[in-house]
Amino acid sequence: MKVLQEGPLANFLNRFMDLILLNVWWFLCSLPIFTIGASTCALYEVTISYALYQSPPVTSTFFEAFRKHLKKATALSLIFLGAGLFLLVDLWCALMWNVPIKFLVLVVILAAAYFYLAVLSHIFPVLTYFDTGVKESIKKAFLLSMSNGIFTIFIMVLNLLPVLLIILFPTYFGQILFFYVVFGFSTIAYFCSLHMVRLFDPQRTKEAEEIEEEQRRLRQE
Questions:
Q1: pTM for this one?
Q2: Is 34 helix (H, G, I), strand (E, B) or coil?
Q3: CA distance 127 to 8
Q4: What DSSP state is assigned to residue 4?
């Protein structure tokens, strides 16, 4: 979606409009709920391209990726939905129990929740970038998230930010919802992708940065 043709301001506005359009497609395609995995894969298909200094057409790229990843992404969504519900039930039961080992049980459940959220934060970008099977994607997402150090926590916080903001500032629920419906989710995916590409394929990222730097230098001459 080209608003202006050239210059730093034009590039910023064009990317901003692309993120708004991308957010709209993600939100609409996630409404059936069971398609949220495929919609998220399609979202990352575009934002990972942006992180590699590419500018694919938003709509066609999104829906092509949506169709491509629909089956595997839906299976992963159901797996993680089931695991998440299991952890929530366990946490609720642990909070209700009045037993001597209650604290230990809570620590174990919260540790499991950390691993769950770490893998969940990486699973759909992994499926998008590597296009592996369901089991292979889970394994690779786990290994990458565990090797990611402090950045894993950063990505987890970014993905949980809508929930955290609503909990911390409930009186601004309408404004927070408006922000995320308009462009919040695509913006988070874009920031996550800037790090994900360095984690997934550092050599390709380095080459893309060198090409972009050379093109920028040529434009300035």
A1: 0.90
A2: coil
A3: 32
A4: S
